[in-house]
């Protein structure tokens, strides 16, 4: 456990992290190491789930659309920056594409493989970075009381926290943005109950002006998303981008060899050598997804408008659900021209016949030759055919996933 980051972290720093976490009490540190959880043992046996899409059983970009967390750029001190849009977490949508247990696999992947990947990027730009620490930006914009009361949402948060406990002292600081008034009041109370060293690393802002000032002190504008008055790409674009391993921190300009590979890049006017980059001649298309969570619990018909940006082409529309009641979905242009026949969508029945599982995504058979509009309307109609044995468990949630591409 201590040497998990050995490929990028020297031994003295690794030992110091664990000792700091236990206030340099050796006995407590040893006790912590002996108390490895079963989830840690399982994650380690699976190499922390390097192939996260297999571990999730769904595309990573689709998972991120419902649980938006991502490393984007670096802070001025070289720490990677992780953004979590807590107000955009949709547990009902999450359960349309995976399970809570499989979601925990993502948190292990994020805390290990994604973190190492982010640290390596930082160390190429800031070679003197040696402490395994991250700046976390927690955006509460849009968070509701129902989200806080959702047992599934809280279970995800608890899972992420428990996984983080296995990688102690990796938090440089936590910046909480757009905090509702009730959260700010609660924080003043909670702050007195936690370790003072931890409390010093956490700053809570209700004022957007003060929050942006603090972010600008920590992060260069080139690395800061435009949502926070930075010059980087917006968070919507970053989370919608299906190129999950790309770091959208500023434009990276490549120089091509004869074989088409990149050997040199310029980041913030600093030349850095990189051995393995994607060949320039393969970067022909960029793909993003547009998602919308629809509920047919209280409505007979629901709609979602898919808006194509300039230069984009709609490639596919898939409907994900674990709902025990079915719905019929079709797509049409804004003028009413049908792009496909209605398709019945419903969750898959578990092998034992007792529960419903995710459908795996049902694709609408679009007539793409008929698409000549920037807006496509996806319509779902409730079929109200829940079997009696599932009636109490019916969720009635459907996640629309539209895939769009554009040439680059």
Question: Can you describe this structure in just a few lines?
Answer:
The chain is of the alpha+beta class and 408 residues long.
How would you portray this structure in words?
With 408 residues, this protein is α+β, with helices and mostly antiparallel strands. It has 13 helices and 18 strands. Strands 1-2-3-4-5 form a 5-stranded mixed sheet. Strands 9-18-11-16 form a 4-stranded antiparallel sheet. A hairpin with a 6-residue loop joins β14 and β15. α7 crosses α9.
> N-to-C terminal Cα separation, in Å?
42 Å
Strands side by side in the biggest sheet: 1-2-3-4-5
Largest sheet: 5 strands, mixed
Percent helix range: 25-40%
Summed up, the helix count is 13
Structural class: alpha+beta
Arithmetic mean pLDDT: 81
How many extended strands? 18
Uncertain segments: 246-282
Strand content: 25-35%
**Radius of gyration, rounded?**
23 Å
Features:
408 residues; alpha+beta; five-stranded mixed beta sheet; four-stranded antiparallel beta sheet; 18 strands
What's the arrangement of secondary structure elements?
Elements: H1 11-21, H2 26-34, H3 38-45, H4 52-56, H5 60-66, E1 69-74, E2 80-85, H6 91-97, H7 100-125, E3 134-139, H8 145-149, H9 151-164, E4 171-177, H10 181-190, H11 196-200, E5 202-204, H12 208-218, H13 235-240, E6 253-256, E7 262-267, E8 270-273, E9 285-295, E10 301-307, E11 313-321, E12 327-333, E13 343-345, E14 348-349, E15 356-357, E16 362-363, E17 375-382, E18 397-407
Helix pairs in contact: 7-9
């Amino acid at each position: 456990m201590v040497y998990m980051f050995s490929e990028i972290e020297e031994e003295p720093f690794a030992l110091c992290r664990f000792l700091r976490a236990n206030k340099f009490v050796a006995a407590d540190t040893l006790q912590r190491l002996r108390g490895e959880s079963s989830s840690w043992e399982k994650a380690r046996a699976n190499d922390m789930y390097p192939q996260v899409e297999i571990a999730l059983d769904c595309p990573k970009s689709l998972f991120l659309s419902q649980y938006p967390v991502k490393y984007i750029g670096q802070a001025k001190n070289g720490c990677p920056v992780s953004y979590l849009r807590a107000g955009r977490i949709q547990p009902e949508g999450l359960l349309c594409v995976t399970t809570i247990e499989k979601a925990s696999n993502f948190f292990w992947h994020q805390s290990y493989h994604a973190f190492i990947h982010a640290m390596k990027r930082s160390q190429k730009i800031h070679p003197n970075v040696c402490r395994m620490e991250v700046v976390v930006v927690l955006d509460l914009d849009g968070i509701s009381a129902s989200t806080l009361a959702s047992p599934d949402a809280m279970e995800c948060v608890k899972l992420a926290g428990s996984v983080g406990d296995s990688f102690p002292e990796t938090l440089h600081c936590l910046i909480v943005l757009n905090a509702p008034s009730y959260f700010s009041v609660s924080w003043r109370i909670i702050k007195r109950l936690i370790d003072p060293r931890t409390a010093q690393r956490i700053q809570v802002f209700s004022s957007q002006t003060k929050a942006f000032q603090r972010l600008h002190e920590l992060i260069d504008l080139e690395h800061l998303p435009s949502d926070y008055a930075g010059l980087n790409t917006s968070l919507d674009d970053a989370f919608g981008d299906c190129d999950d391993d790309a770091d959208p921190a500023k434009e990276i300009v490549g120089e091509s060899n004869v074989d088409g590979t990149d050997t040199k890049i310029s980041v913030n006017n600093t030349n850095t050598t990189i051995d393995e980059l994607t060949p320039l001649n393969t970067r022909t298309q960029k793909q993003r997804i547009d998602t919308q969570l629809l509920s047919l619990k209280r409505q007979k018909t629901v709609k979602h408008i898919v808006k194509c940006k300039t230069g984009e082409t709609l490639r596919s529309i898939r409907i994900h659900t674990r709902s025990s009641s079915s719905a019929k979905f079709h797509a049409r242009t804004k003028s009413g021209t049908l792009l496909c026949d209605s398709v019945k969508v419903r969750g898959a029945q578990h092998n034992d016949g007792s529960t419903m599982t995710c459908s795996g995504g049902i694709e609408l058979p679009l007539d793409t030759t008929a698409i000549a509009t920037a807006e496509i309307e996806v319509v779902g109609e409730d079929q109200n055919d829940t079997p009696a044995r599932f009636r109490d468990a019916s969720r009635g949630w459907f996640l629309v996933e539209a895939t769009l591409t554009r040439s680059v």
